[in-house]
Amino acid sequence: MDSFKVGNLMGIEWRFSEWIMHAGGLTPLNVLEYFSLSPFWDPTSNNAVLQMQTKFNALQHEKLQLEQMVGIEFALAYEKFPDYYVIVKRKRTSPTKS
């Protein structure tokens, strides 16, 4: 079952103000982490797999690892710092194409 159903989520407005305050605001570096807490997050995405794999270690270059995977991923497509971000859900069909 696909966990991302547009029809079911169209009427949802989501915000986690406490997290934003604790993080000191949203930035391009933490906006995907914030998004991972939302009902729009797909726990089967490549981002979620990497998040679990790197949770307890200091593995760096997570973006490079994500680019080597195929499947569903989330990416920051547009930013207008400090308060406007567009995140896209896309299917990567090969490590060289997004």
Automatic annotation (TrEMBL):
Entry protein name = Mediator of RNA polymerase II transcription subunit 6
Concerning InterPro entries, the annotation shows: Mediator_Med6, Mediator_Med6_sf
Q: Name one GO cellular component term.
A: mediator complex
Species source reads Smittium culicis
Q: Name one Pfam family in it.
A: Med6
Q: Which Gene3D superfamilies match?
A: Mediator complex, subunit Med6 (3.10.450.580)
In which family does this protein belong, per the annotation?
A: Belongs to the Mediator complex subunit 6 family.
Cell location: Nucleus
Q: What does this protein do?
A: Component of the Mediator complex, a coactivator involved in the regulated transcription of nearly all RNA polymerase II-dependent genes. Mediator functions as a bridge to convey information from gene-specific regulatory proteins to the basal RNA polymerase II transcription machinery. Mediator is recruited to promoters by direct interactions with regulatory proteins and serves as a scaffold for the assembly of a functional preinitiation complex with RNA polymerase II and the general transcription factors.
Keywords attached to this entry: Activator, Nucleus, Transcription, Transcription regulation
Predominant location: nucleus
Instruction: Name any Gene Ontology BP term.
Output: regulation of transcription by RNA polymerase II
Subunit structure, interactors included: Component of the Mediator complex.
Which GO MF terms are attached to this record?
Answer: transcription coregulator activity
Keyword Thylakoid among record annotations: no
